[in-house]
Amino acid sequence: MTWDWGYAWETLPQLLDGLGVTVLATLAGTAIALVLGLVFTVMRRSSARWISIPTEIFVEFIRSTPLLVQLFVLFFVLPEAGIQLSAFMTGVIGLGLHYATYTSEVYRSGIEGVPAGQWEAAKALNLPTRRVWTSVILPQAVPPSIPALGNYAIAMFKETPQLTVITVMELLSVARQLGAENYRYLEPVTIIGVLFLLLSLPTAWLVRRMERRLVPAPRPV
Amino acid sequence: MSPQLFAYLLEGLLTTLQLTVGAAVLGLVFSFAAGIATCSPNIVVRGVGRCYIELFRGISALVLLFWFVFALPYAGWQLEPMWAGILALALNIGAYGAEVVRGGIVAVPVAQIEAAVALNFTRSQRMRLVVLPQAIARMLPPFGNLLIELLKGTSVAYIVLIPDLTFAGQIVRNATGDSASVFTALLILYAVLAVIFTTIVRLVERRVAKSLGRQPTPGFFARIKGVKA
Amino acid sequence: MLGKDLKLMSQSATEAALTSRKDGQFIHFDKVSKRFGDNVVLDDLSFAVGAGERVTLIGPSGSGKTTILRMLMTLMEPDTGTVRVGDDYLFHEERGGKLVPASEAHVRKVRQRITMVFQSFNLFPNMRVLRNVTEAPVHVLGLSKEEAEERALGLLEMVGLDHKIDSYPSQLSGGQQQRVAIARALAMRPDVLLLDEVTSALDPELAAGVLDVLRDVAKTTDVTMLCVTHAMKFARDISHRVLMFCEGKIIEAAPPEQMFDSPDHERTRSFLQSVLNES
Amino acid sequence: MLGKDLKLMSQSATEAALTSRKDGQFIHFDKVSKRFGDNVVLDDLSFAVGAGERVTLIGPSGSGKTTILRMLMTLMEPDTGTVRVGDDYLFHEERGGKLVPASEAHVRKVRQRITMVFQSFNLFPNMRVLRNVTEAPVHVLGLSKEEAEERALGLLEMVGLDHKIDSYPSQLSGGQQQRVAIARALAMRPDVLLLDEVTSALDPELAAGVLDVLRDVAKTTDVTMLCVTHAMKFARDISHRVLMFCEGKIIEAAPPEQMFDSPDHERTRSFLQSVLNES
Amino acid sequence: STVDLTAQEAGGDLLSRIRDRGEVNIGIANEAPYGFVDRSGRITGEAPELARIVFQRLGVERMNPRITDFGALIPALQVGVFDVIAAGMFVTPARCKQVLFSDPEYQAPEALMVPKGNPKGLKTLDDIVANKDVRVGLLTGSANISYATALGLMDRAVIFDSVFSGLDGILANRADAFSLTAISLRDALSKRSDAPLELTPAFVPVIGGKRQLGCGAFGFRRDQRTFRDAFTVELNRMRASGELLSTVRPFGFTEAEMTTLTATELCTDTSS
Ligand SMILES: Nc1ncnc2c1ncn2[C@@H]1O[C@H](COP(=O)(O)OP(=O)(O)OP(=O)(O)O)[C@@H](O)[C@H]1O
Ligand SMILES: Nc1ncnc2c1ncn2[C@@H]1O[C@H](COP(=O)(O)OP(=O)(O)OP(=O)(O)O)[C@@H](O)[C@H]1O
Ligand SMILES: [Mg+2]
Ligand SMILES: [Mg+2]
């Protein structure tokens, strides 16, 4: 089988539609992951163990099981519990929830990266706990986390094909459908690969530029 | 559940393990090759390393899998789905691993390299004797995370004919019609696998940390026991 | 220049001394022990410091000097024993005649009287100099922004940095950072000021500037000072009393002249010799 | 104990002095300049050090002392000017009568004669003490493992750490780590030993031990030493000559007695006063 | 582990190689009752059972089933992952361009799976076309997708990756009706008899005035005509002797599902 330009051209509009869904899901998922991750982090650091321990277990569980299976559960089991969300919403929530466990780790290491001396100085000044977080710790912990957070946004972008199992017609579902209809996978799948690269490369570049700005240049080895 | 269906699950579990371990080993090779390449003073070597990382981080493992299984045969060679799976996952995870390797190398304090210069080590001796042994200790925790990523990532393999754990789950689901318990079982099985992998990585971490005379960072269990500063 | 700002400080220190229970002392360590694993860091230690007294802690590395200061700052808890500041226990509360572990609110109340300056400055890198100094007065003491800034400007002028109020800490030299840290601590008008080797991360020339500032503080206020330092000349200048630590115990306590010129203890002698020898 | 190991050292230092070109000096800085951005760190600096000479560099923070040592160690290149060690240029090679930038191989050859001990020790945390000391002799000098270990044991005995050969650096105190670092440097049998504030990260008592070891080294070998330190007593004891740096220039050079007791320069006087004052 | 495809495309006789190997790889889609894994974990279904007998008669003793996504059956056949599609795949002219079909072993009318009581009153695909609020569930890669495309239903289609996802999807109100062959749906429902679902009476969809009679057959690579012919001969013998019906009857097939149409007719006859 050789590359068929005509077919590739014909499928492009549908694939671009799929790409739209993919991008939208990624953006919405990222927004959820950013907020929820911070919530998880703070809950995990709570001094009340009935909050911190269940959160820790929950986060660890979500983090170590496949998104695919979580999507199945959200899609087919939640409605039985009376929660009816659209397939797209389910996918976005699944992505956001899954990646929140990662961003939570990022925030955590950002917070741990703040030198102990900062906590001690804040205590020596008797600053109230909320103030310690908002004016001392988070302003120092969040900026260094931005590149890692950006990387997860890219990773999420590439996970969206898994939404195919819950009937969201994102990029890969469209390609599979086209392939199954026309029995040609080569063109749609290749186009997807290129589209992914076209989106992820500039994003990765941006993230690295940020990283370079935040972490002063290393040196020759 | 019948013994046969159980056998499917077991086989799926083994396939998942095989995929994970195979891709981890191969991915580790890619990681080090590309990671060290990006720290090379030679611009060509550095360029090749960077290209590999950007390309394979940018394409999802699923797309790679599709390519290897359904497109590559037209270019004249065909991989067993299992090998295609291992290769695709390894290429993908290797690109992430390369970033970890690079990060580990860059994080070794400059002072260590200066000390090695003061002792007149050659460039490659510096890398081999001083930088890498220290860098590896830093790489282990992120490598542990990548291993879990990989484990979960294998679940996409079922889409290209590789009968992994998720696939086995689908078979059982179709045979018994019982979606909820199959999904629950899958979640638990993956979590158990993840815990096993994490434990192994932490043991290695502990060993390496000890060989540097360091305290390893507290793990999950230590964390939920609530040891806080 | 100094008088203006520092007169205001520590109105309550003397007051505190008056309210102190029995012996006219302000800070009491009572049978305090602390260990890390097998390492006994403080060994059944008791001592007291009067209101307005300036005490220097000396002793070999690992003898527990920092531990004393960190404990007073509640950065560390004792394993056994009690610490009292004025009328209040620091880690305990009296409830129905019994000592129970203190609530966070209680600790915060007692801690309010104390503040600490660290070896590594620990300025907040995300805030400019002025905000480093005003942050706590505004959010802890409840001063208005204007009041806090006025107070901060006075103190920054005192430490010679009023022209740097808009710099970030990273734009200052170590000596400058440490002087800001001192101003930040004084802005809380503490009764007790803890200083842990505040010059040992600095070059000798920069250190001199910081010690000069502290001499001023010592001479113009009646703040209680606990100070760990290797700058023996400074210790001699400012302290009322020197405590020599060794292996978690105080092995000698005396006014500086006596301690430095004719120490009783053999260990003190050898320690002082090695410190004074190299310079 | 010392003699045994150190006699062997620097056979080539005297030799080097003989081969040195014109003025009997061993190290030559010739019109060296270095700047970072706008900051002129070394300003057209020329000076020379004889073989076996021990020179102390003093001066305020930022005056370029560390820069000199790092340049000799090839951790930094000059912007203009040349550095010569014995007969060889450090950053240049002579090819067809012209100076061209040196190849890595040439730099390695010249660098072989020089080694450095750092303020923060920089032991390799992944190697036990013994291997820290043997690693370079084995891999750089090509000694057999046995030879290298014999040499290392001798040196570790000299610095009083032969009982710690199986410890990791993280299990040692700062003073012990620095003594290992000195042994590690000496194991290379360098002609030139560079020391950059090797005690300033240490407590005074621990620092004393390290300085004692260095006194021994100075007295029992003829290694050329360039030494940045604030320990003036030590400088006076060991150095042949003291160089006072200020803003990238040498403003005064004299034997230690003269420099410390009657400095010519006003800047030197004020610097020495502030350093000697606090202790 | 690489296989040289070109050798086969040059017209090599796959059947004789299979005979040499003594083992044939068949592709199934895990879709009951055509080819699936049953409760006891055995791979069975009308197509694998028929294939087992036919291959035995062709001198191949062992059969190695490989399960895959329905949509991936044809690509996987084409790249040699297996030798025959034994999944009861419908013969359509479009598919005929990609694979060779044996004569069909059954014909199957369609049905709709709907919530119990059929609240939207749906009976055929035409009802779905008429009611713009209805979301129709389809199985990925199935012939129903081309029906839905022709009927302009795709913008309301919900594409499931397995029959049970479709069933769970109706239960979870992800779609209002799931369109598939009556026989598949009946089988799926039998495994979940407690589910509040029901089937509409079977119907034959009509598109562009033409009846779309789904006929399932075995699929072969395009260069394996001899192989296909040999297989078809044996299959038609079974059909004539009645053995075909008796083999598939346990899977819910009846005389009504038997057909004498040929692959050639199905490949040229209809067009959509
Ligand atoms: N968080 C900790 N965990 C374990 N050991 C500790 C900890 N903090 C202090 N120590 C130990 O307690 C002992 C006393 O420490 P401390 O810092 O009080 O000594 P110091 O007198 O201040 O010494 P230095 O002059 O070196 O600062 C040391 O042996 C130290 O190792
Ligand atoms: N890598 C660098 N980038 C920019 N500036 C540098 C760099 N290294 C040194 N400098 C600057 O060069 C000047 C001289 O530094 P150097 O370390 O030689 O001083 P020094 O005399 O050793 O001072 P100190 O007593 O503080 O160690 C300083 O102003 C310093 O900020
Ligand atoms: Mg201390
Ligand atoms: Mg320096």
Model description:
The complex is a heteropentamer, with one copy of chain A (221 residues), one copy of chain B (229 residues), two copies of chain C (279 residues) and one copy of chain E (272 residues). Chain A has 221 residues and is mainly α. Chain A has one domain: Orthogonal Bundle (MetI-like fold). In chain A, 78% of the residues lie in helices and 0% in strands. Chain A has eight helices and no strands. In chain A, helix 1 packs across helix 4, helix 6 runs antiparallel to helix 8 and helix 7 packs antiparallel against helix 8 (186-214). The radius of gyration of chain A is 21 Å and the shape is elongated. In chain A, 47% of the residues are buried. Residues 216-221 of chain A have low confidence and may be disordered. Chain B has 229 residues and is mostly helical. Chain B has a single domain (9-222), classed as MetI-like fold (Orthogonal Bundle). Helices cover 78% and strands 0% of the residues of chain B. In chain C, a hairpin with a 2-residue loop joins strand 4 and strand 5 (88-89). The longest helix of chain C has 17 residues, at 204-220. Chain C contains eleven helices and twelve strands. Chain C is globular, with a radius of gyration of 19 Å. In chain C, helix 5 runs parallel beside helix 7 (174-186), helix 6 (145-158) packs across helix 7 and helix 7 (174-186) runs parallel beside helix 8 (204-220). Chain E is an alpha/beta fold. In chain E, the strands form four sheets. In chain E, strands 1, 4, 5, 6, 7 and 15 form a six-stranded mixed β-sheet that branches. Classes of the chains: A mainly alpha (221), B mainly alpha (229), C alpha/beta (279), E alpha/beta (272). The A-C interface holds A 115, 117-118, 120-121, 123-128, 131, 135-136, 139-140 and C 73-75, 108, 111-112, 114-116, 118, 120, 122-127, 135-136, 139-140, 184-185, 188, 194. One adenosine-5'-triphosphate (ATP) binds next to strand 2 and helix 3 of chain C. One magnesium ion binds at residues 65-66, 196, 228 of chain D. Chains C, D: Residues 27-272 form the ABC transporter domain. Chains C, D: Keywords: Amino-acid transport, ATP-binding, Cell membrane, Membrane, Nucleotide-binding, Transport.
